[in-house]
Amino acid sequence: MRKKILTVFLAITVxxxxxxxxxxxxxxxxxxPTMDAPAEEISMGTTGDEAAAADEVYDEGGYTTDELIDMLxxxxxxxxILESMVADGEVSYETYEEVLxxxxxxxxxxxxxxxxxxxxxxxxxxxxxAISFSEGVAWITVAEKNEDNAHTLLxxxxxxxxxxxNIGNTSWxxxxxxxxxxxxxxxxxNVTGAAxxxxxxxxxxxxxxxxxxxxEDIYGVGSVESIEISCLNGYLLEKAxxxxxxxxxNLYTVIKPDGTWLFEPLIDNEISLYKYGYCSxxxxxxxxxxxxxxxxxxxxxxxxxxxILDNASEERKLKWEEEYDRSNQDGLLxxxxxxxxxxxxxxxxxxxxGYNISxxxxxxNGYCVLPIKNPDGADYITVIxxxxxxxxxxxxxxxxxxxxxxxxxxxxxxxxxxxxxDPLYYQFHEGYNNFYITLEGEIYESEYECxxxxxxxxxxxxxxxxxxxxxxxxxxxxxxxxxxxxxxxNENGQxxxxxxxxxxxxxxxxxxxxxxxxxxxxxxxxAIVAFDGTNCNFFSPSDTYAFYADGDNYRLECTxxxxxxxxxxxxxxxxxxxxxxxxxxNVTELQRTK
Length: 594
What we know:
By secondary structure, the chain is an alpha+beta fold. The protein has eight helices and 40 strands. The longest helix has 20 residues, at about 1-20.
């Protein structure tokens, strides 16, 4: 990559040198630009044709404008990373300018507290229910502290709302939701009976109304009297009761994660759905009734089995279950007899015979928490990696029941041992103790009484173990989605308007910390931004800016890299060291730092 950039720079240098020499060898050539030369200096030294030629070379990544906009909006890349992609030749200057122009028109991302349907949320609204992030998204239910005005939201890791379900004042706990598996989750309203299968993009791929409609397409309008569903591993088990003049019966089928039938509904033939990713139902072409058909939901493999006489088919089921376990445990399963982790051929990959292991350990995310005992039977824990390396000396485990642990994002959290524990659902397991342990064995005590393992960069926590409020914290143990502070409250909870002052010759130069709940550009909550008189990192990492008086307030104009876009802000002064920066109705609060 760098060789190609250097080639382009040298080619441009040759063009400039020839122009300066007028074709004569008696004039000294202009110096070649260095690798650190700003991109705009090079582009100014080229003609339109030369710039177009450079653009052809400077587009190795093959990214489209839409792809880059999506990457910026999702947080996959930042403006700073985009600028480095331009410098590395992955994105052309023309594409870069087009992306910035479009991105400038997009409202800055804000977290779910700013969602319009919440009607200017104040600190009286809290997260009443939630599950940890899985597959990049999480369900939360927010409501006022008196439990009125409830909403269920599907959010991504940026706090963006992907799906909204208005519960109203019925009951904040009327809605239940499953974790995401196979890209979908089931959302159920226990009051209205509504049910929806939602994917990670916030799209409804199936609903109870659709389930009824699909069956009525076969048996006629009004034929379905009731429909029941349950969800496991992203698949739905559906039971519908129909009543027509021709027949009255129950229909059974399995709904796939894309919202379609695995097979047409079976008449009065109950289906069993197993956590290991397969289902079974009675083979009506055979008697007696214990002949069943098994279908692997992931591979599509199927077979018919006499559950009493067919040992070979029973072994096939056990093989499916082992394959499922391996797929969710990094391909490694613990064998108690061999005292170690084995591969799919039964060979020992990690020998654990040197440990006195108290229960069956499981790998997840490349690590395994080992519950072990010392020679006198006292409980300890340590962590090993996929190569069997012990990451730190065993540490005491003061809670003998907490023998499972979930590793993610550089931390693990101890949980109760559960023989049915599936690493796929670790986000549902509370930490038994209120502390996190790093992969180096350092212990970080939490101020919260109930914690869940980290997932997708966030840990779900509860201030009180049996309380009804939740918070997401990041790996720095900060509130990841602080509530909107569009109004301040006095000690009686009454809204108080901020008072701004007028200051002549006010200077913004210096370093400022974003201390509010809303951030813009680089000035996200907790971040430091600096103004040096010419450049700042408020809007993007390499802005130039203008700051001047505008009536009783001040005007801040930040221009991004290569002068392709400018954002204008109104600055209101609280005091010499505190300001509010307005971008439309959004406010970023800054505090001067020493």
